Amino acid sequence: MCAAACALLGILVAQPAGAELVGREQALAALTGADVEARRAAALELGKVGTMGDAGALLDALYDDDEVVRSLAETAVWQVWMRSGDARADALLASGIRRMENGQMGAAVDDFTRAIEIQPEFAEGWNKRATAYYLMGDLEQSLHDCDEVIRRNPNHFGALSGYGLIYVQRGELERALEYFERALAINPNLEGVQQSIELIEYRLGKEGKRSI
Fold it and tell me: Rounded distance, CA 82 to CA 20, Å?
């Protein structure tokens, strides 16, 4: 899940002007270098060819001084997370996303379930199914699937945001705040999550549960 539950990330981005694409190893090295254009190109390249092992470097880049690098790194993280290593599971994930976008939630759940059966450790399969269940109003099943995501990918800021959304729906604002804060600590660029935190803190302050 993500801060806006129906926003399915993994968007295509344009290559930064003047940047030259490099290989994976060179991209990892360039991602922490002084040249901002090289960092932008590196994040873009890792989105195309990066592996799960590269996710940590991309998560670090979410704190880059350059806004473009941060944006490209966030997109690249999602692209890496959406690759299971199995073509069948990846195809089912893509099919499920298309069906979810078209409002075919039951069929989307079926696709995500089949992807999970093929690759049980595929965290993004669980995450997308959590999103579908959330949109269907099945909060308990969505919570279960979020648990499965975090077991496999503790840094999944989308699933952590998903917990927050679920607990807001359940009226458990303090628990929602905890998960939103955890998501923001991993990815400080989640504007919607930041706004949710501010609203919850205000609400809790009004209720006397936290100082405003």
Answer: 24
